[in-house]
Amino acid sequence: MAVNDIAAAYRARQSGSFELPNPLHKYASYNALFTLSALTEGQIKSGSYLTDTKLYSVIARSAGIGPTGNQHAFRDDEIKRFEEAGPGIQNRIEIDNQKKQYEGYEASIQLLQANHDIFFENINILSTIGPNNERNLANFTKMEFEMHEPYGVTLVEKIRAATFLAGYIDYQDAPLLLTIEFKGFDENGNTLKQGMSETRKIPILIAKVDFDVNEGGARYSIVAVPYGDLGFDDRFKVARTQFDLTTSYFLGKDGWKEKMEEGLADQMTQEIEEKARLYEDKYQFEIEDGLLSNLGDYVTDEDISIHGGNTVAEEHEDIVENEFQDASSSIYSGQTQQVDSGTTVTKAFEDFLLNRPGFFDLARDFWRAYLTMAGYPVPNGKGKDQEAKRTRFIQDLLTDESKSRELQAVLLKHQYVPWFKIKSTVFTQTRQGIDPITKMHPKKIVYKAIPYKIHVLKLLSTGFSIGSVDWSKLVRKNYDYIYTGENQDVQNLRINYKTAYYMRNVRGDDKSENESGIKKAIRATTNLVFGREQAPEPLLPLRNYPSNIKGRSTVEVTGRKGGHKVQEFFDYLVNPTADMMRIELDILGDPHFLCQDVFTTLKELNNKKTDRLIKIDSDFDENQFNSFNADQYMPMINLRYRLPTDILDKQGTMFGDGQTVQDNLFFNGIYQVYKVESKFDTGQFLQTLFCVRMNNQQGQGLAPSVINTVNRYTNDNALDIRKKNKDKENLIKKRKDDDKDLDKYINNNPLNISP
To answer: pTM value?
Structure first.
């Protein structure tokens, strides 16, 4: 069920199937069991590790390894493959090399096969699952765990042996599989059936191992990251040469993808010539099918039919038709993109996408883009007449009191706005062998832009609200921090409230404000939309103030209006810790927040294309792993805090029938979960949810106002008024009836806030 269907959401909520309780509440007692094992490159490329029931080359396990660790047969299979290929000289050489390598690992393999137990103790997983200031539009996860090995110091040798048996020589870059299983009993002592919903499988890369050795063995402190995060290592993500990326499209000859991959290939060639390496690493950039082309029809009706109407790309082409280099491109005059040495390739990728039609429109002119995407019957068609008609239509809709409830229904039904994330995976070219200079396997590094949905409450501006909505019916998790038995999860709550908070209203670059006349005024009209409510939530008033502070983009454009708004939106999105209201909510551990899709890698379909392993188009995976799909949707929770009061003598209860001030504290409401810390310590599983409060959740729901900017641009110079009026009269004479209507509309709207 798609969460952006408001009617379906309410129906599901009423039937009890939308809100989801903690699955661990069904256990009377449970344990979280951890296993560390090896992975082959074939499992990474196919993604079969998610569904494989058997674990191979077990290195450590919470419950003990037992009599067998299920060793990989990869090396034996390699020898068998060459033997079956025939008695040729090359095959014999390969067989001899395989056997010689095996001899060098024989002692380590014997240690692995001895199944000496290593136990997990404390585990901490800090997972940033939303846009953030560490990785911008990519996830960031860090894992720390302690392990105890009685009477031995064999962990590193066991890892070396396990990864060798899986096909890797360079074990320091080899993937391992961390498996988490929740097992326990019900109140009658019966073992509960365990499914995939109580299992998480995380390919990891061990980054650091510290250990203390004493008479009782060794204690290890390990730092690890998801294996897909290897693509964000500085050796891969940072460009070491300079090249140009100026282009108007992604695929095809001289497209952005081709230029980026060629630039990085030239970097490899230079390093080979400099004798810095012998084998090249290969880069691959992808955009998921439909991410750009389907921005105009991303929502569905109850009957799964797609809304009609123009796509945002088509609308965008109408708006700036004279600024395009040609009718089919999406690049503006004067747009350039340059990658310098030291620039991260992921930043260049994000900047390219931010300037595509659709994403650019959402940040620059939210209402026009949003209504088009939501399938609202905005007039379509090309040409200046239709452009003027659409402008009037949108402005009338936003300022018409009778349309306010209709607008609210649109916002409720289409709660999620399309955006994107960057996902990475590294594939190791194990059969090419070790580079004799770097002593590493050559790699293929894949960066892929995948769809991501942002909740509309994240985008509400100052003074604007959807109205009084019971958002608790539209989220998966409701947390009641009250002093009764209703509170099953919340342990503690910390609140960070910035009372001096205001949003930046970034000014444009004066150099780009070079367009004049009615054309510019028409385009600017629907941009300046402000809420008519002073403060929809009086104790959390959103304010803004002009600013010229913004992040730097690798894309530079002259002659285009609105680019500063794109960067402003991006800066706001990736800095959740700077929001006005931020909380840290300590809860009993909930596997729903161990988001399986965040931990997975991409699977390889062929040499040029990859795909996600989990592609369920919903905020929650109810089919297999029972976890939030945080790679695709912004996770949302509802918090309700109630202060204890004196017991009511006549009723014998703490809370009366009606609501009091204590029932409606200003920090109650809907929060975005942007980071989750999961702590497994001495058998206890706790989590801390790092959240930011969404904007203007309650209010009157008044239609917003539109500040008309025509006079600001047409009468900005008092000495030039007479000449401009003369030009305007000449223009009126040449226009058709529709143009005359437009001119009349402009003259009847002086510089003020519309009623």
So the answer is: 0.82
